[in-house]
Batch of 2 targets.
Target 1
Amino acid sequence: MSESALLILVPQAESLVSRWRREFDPSASVGVPAHVTLIYPFVPAEAIGASEIATLRMLFGAASSFAFELTSSARFPTMVYLRPVPDEPIRALTASLERAFPAYPPYGGAFDEVIPHLTVAEIGDEDVLTRIETELPSGIRIHVEVDEATLMTQRSDGFWRVAETFALGAR
């Protein structure tokens, strides 16, 4: 079965993070651009039909567009990421998706708290993560206007593609 994900694409961050993502973020090597995850894994790609698309259109259409900034990096044990501030609108979208699709919690329900983030590198090598953190410029300031969410699906060859976009506030 092919996977799917609901994401906020962040092309504004590509020039900053692409060199590390190419080498240290497995999703980058299969065609997933810089992003903040709303829900992954989502409904298997083969099972997404008109009903799921209609629910997503309604849900995202009822949400307002918003903005955030990426201004600093942070760490999970095996990851360096950029932190979106404020992250409340992202958390609110994720919560509404969880209510609409309770069988598909973020990250399969693996975490008690889902922290919105844009992955720079994911690797179990502490030295590499520390090096990346020191190489990231101080004073990062990437402004992101969010007016749509993206459904990406995995193709049979393992690569991902944009399957659908959903405008925020488009009732």
Note: The longest strand covers residues 66-76.
Target 2
Amino acid sequence: MTMEWDDLKHFLAVARSGSLIEAARGLKSSPATVGRHIAALESKLGARLFDRQQPGYTLTESGEAIRLKAEDVEEAILSVEREAVGRDLRVTGKVRLAASDDVATHIVAPHLAQFKRSYPDISLDLIARMDLVNLTRREADIALRGMRPAQGDFIVRRAGSWPFGLYAAKTCARAHARQNRLLKRRDYHLD
């Protein structure tokens, strides 16, 4: 029996989405292809990994055990990819940059023309949305975030600062100061 990463990758997509259609959409494939990979993996393992029901695919007990191991394999493969990409010295290719809507609009967008002049061989794909992309699963290559990631094998650098203010009517600020530690900090004045 030879395990293939492609089978595990398709398995994880179905385990996460609960659907062949959603897994196929995420993998930019077809539901039939995803189904073939699932069937191949179940055949190789000699185990049923999913209960196939009307609302979707749910993991069996065996499937849940395999999912945990498959995620370890996924992390190892993605770590190898990150290591290889980090050593490539060519400044070419596609880079996916994720940022919140406001950061993308007010900080990144004004500098896009200069970036293109400085790095003409890089195709920048800007993902502007409020929810966090998953860097481990390569949903983006770089993420601008307001806080340091709590977990994961990432290279973290401070990219800059963005001043902002918190404004409220004095009566509202005083009324809520007891509930909100931010307002109690000395650098916020309620005068």
Note: The domain at 90-143 is CATH 3.40.190.10 (D-Maltodextrin-Binding Protein; domain 2).
